[in-house]
Amino acid sequence: MPPRPTPVPIPRTRPPPLMAASAKRPSASALAALLAARRGRARLVAPLCFFLLLLLVFLRTHPSAAPPTSLPPSAGPGKVAFLFLARAGLPLDFLWDAFFRNGDEGKFSVYVHSSPGFVFDRTTTGSPYFYGRQLAKSVKVDWGEPTMVEAEKMLFAAALEDPANQRFVLLSDSCGPLYNFSHTYTYLMASPKSVVDSFTDKADMRYNPSMSPVIPKDKWRKGSQWVMLIRKHAEVVVGDKHVFQLFRKHCKMVVTKALLGRRLNARRLGFVFRRKQKGADEKEHDCIPDEHYVQTLFSIKGLENELERRTLTYTSWNQSSLDPKDKTTWHPMTFEYDTASPEHINAIKSIDHVNYEVEHRTEWCQCNGTSVPCFLFARKFSYSAAMHILEDGAIGLLKSAQLLVNF
């Protein structure tokens, strides 16, 4: 504790002993005036000392904050976290191996959410970039269920533990890169915004009024689940509890008899439908959480102006049916060897805008204000399609194809 201030002594009125005896003594009135003046100065000095004492105590108990820094809280360059949402193994691990091998290991990290108990080691993958990269904890993912979103949140949470991770890309096990690592890294790190496909579908029947008021209807959004988030937005997704609780309760895929024809296709995809035991023919709110959660959350949080409202992952949709309500033919098409030719891949790379007919909006693809191609990745690639991309050297040096002997 700082010392108490000592009282200011009142000076004596007796003249100094060395004063000449012949000096004229001041009058009584003069002495009274001098005493009053000195007492006035004492009254001013004492409060000032007390103020300085309080200021000293405040500064000791409230140290000044460290100066802000714009650098990431870790040494080295920022990293891109590649987050794979897999059913079990990664059938295109050889393609990603070539992609990562031609990159800088200090600029990326890999995380995989797979089936509980599945381990990536030498017996399950030929790429060392995936060894032990599965999450320590995972959930069984059912297609059309909130568990899909739960798995995504777990991936973001795991990647956020590394402060060097600054960009977070969500990918499926059938996704493949369209460019080499250097181009992809530069593109992602240059973007100050998250890339989230988000739009309002006025004809959408998936919103459940029971979600209100936490999720207002005017904040309900739809879009692709394959997003790229900056660190700030990844923290928002991981930190959310209330909106996800509503999704867990009210946003589920309801399988009716009209949709049972898709069961075979769902099994081929590796996901499981949960069929309601009662009222299968009743009208229900058919909701697919992964197509709404991130978009709606950011809409509620007022973050839409911080987004590029599109996706980085190209999908070719089968639109062979003339009936828009016919969902049996509305699904992603798989790229095979022929459709993964350089001509087809270059056609995808040349796309620089996306039309959203339901909003009468055209999204011109930009990165930090500069016009860029829209897509860095594509799905769904078959094994032969991935081989074709490797052969053409679209993502790296041709010598990368020699690594296939390890798979």
From TrEMBL:
Alphabetical list of InterPro entries matching this protein? BC10-like, Glyco_trans_14
One Gene Ontology molecular-function label: glycosyltransferase activity
Chief subcellular location? membrane
- Membrane topology label: Single-pass type II membrane protein
Keywords of this entry: Glycoprotein, Glycosyltransferase, Membrane, Transferase
Q: Where is the composition biased (Pro residues)?
A: 1-18
Protein name in the entry: Uncharacterized protein
- Specify the species: Brachypodium distachyon
Upper lineage: Eukaryota, Viridiplantae, Streptophyta, Embryophyta, Tracheophyta
Q: Which gene encodes it?
A: LOC100841428
